[in-house]
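#lab-general

N.A. 3:47 PM
ok so I finally got the sequence cleaned up, no stray characters, all 133 residues accounted for. can someone with queue access submit it? mine expired

B.Y. 3:52 PM
send it over

N.A. 3:53 PM
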Amino acid sequence: MQTVNMLSHKNRLMKTIALIAHDNRKTELLNWVKSNQHALKDYKLVGTSNTSKLINDLLDLDVTPFGHGPSGGDILLAARILQGEIDKVIFFIDAETPHGHEHDIQTLIRTAVINNIPIALNRASADLIVLEN
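B.Y. 4:20 PM
back already:
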């Protein structure tokens, strides 16, 4: 029983990073995650279903899926931010392609900004977020 309590306490102390990428940016995110794998092991990781599956299948990390982006995953992540469950967001966006769920994407970004949650939208800002623990 003591071990379970210590593990649950440890999980509460670990910061949570959400990992998301549009289809045209998934390879870029995967490469970034691979090069930052050591640092990311210090975080609890969550991500949209396709991004989580890609990272879990190819790297030695455990990314918990929470939903498909275009099917409400962005809104689910915004809700998790509002509930205080997310500490940082790394979202490699494809700014050159229109998205049918653009409103959800903007809601997610706005929710992170309003709640003072660091959000990286490209590799350079993701590097800064992971370096700052």
